[in-house]
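Expect chain and fold; thus:
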Amino acid sequence: MAKKSSVEKNNRRKRMAMQSLPKRKALKATIQNPKTSDADRRAAQVALEKMPRNSSPTRVRNRCEMTGRSRGFIRAFGLSRIALRELALEGKVPGLRKASW
């Protein structure tokens, strides 16, 4: 089980990223638009830099829903490899079973 503080920090980052998504998109569109003047582009860059770091979606870490583990995350299930294996062995994941040959 991951530390509660790490999981909570990641949840806080998710919330911040979702709240600031429209503003970040607008600023990035302004920066990337070739018709934008240099002064407006620079102002948008400064505004984007002044936003909190944790509001960036790239700072959000994928974590297991059961344990909070950050390594070995399997995106299709939202679980770590260990939690997925335990659930698969118990037969709680439909259509998934341990390979044997």
